[in-house]
Amino acid sequence: MKHCIFLVLVAFAAPLWAQDKPAPKPEAAKEEPPKKQAAATPRKAGKRWNEDARHCLERPTNTEIIKCAEEYL
User: Fold this and answer.
1) Angle, vertex CA 37, rays to CA 34 and CA 43, nearest 5
2) What is the reported pTM?
3) How confident is the model at residue 42 (pLDDT cuts 50, 70, 90)?
4) Helix (H, G, I), strand (E, B) or coil at 70
5) Are 48 and 72 in contact (CB under 8 A)?
6) Contact at 8 Å (CB) between 69 and 61?
7) Which residues contact 55 (CB under 8 A, 6 or more apart)?
8) Burial annotation 12-21 (CB, 10 A radius, 16+ → b, else e)
9) Cβ-based neighbours of 65, under 8 Å, separated by 6 or more
């Protein structure tokens, strides 16, 4: 049983080892990635995923509920 598990692991890992590694770029050729532009709607600094968002369910339409709840993702 242990031999079978080992063979399966090797079978999945072999293609990863076979891939070519990209050549490192010289430091002069490195480019900075473009900076992201600010979002259309400003967001609060911290995530609120640990807070309760049930008050959003009291909104009248589904669209308003979704917009309210997105702040907590």
Assistant:
1) 135
2) 0.36
3) low
4) helix
5) yes
6) no
7) 68
8) eeeeeeeeee
9) 56, 57, 59
Average pLDDT (17-46) is 62
Q: In this structure, are residues 15 and 9 in contact, taking their beta carbons and an 8 Å threshold? A: no
User: Cα 38–44–49 angle (5° rounding)?
Assistant: 120
What number is the average pLDDT over the span 66-73? 87
Per the listing, tokens 């598990």 go with 5
Amino acid letter, 68: C
What six digits make up the tokens of 38? Answer: 């600010």
Q: What average pLDDT does the structure give for the chain?
A: 75
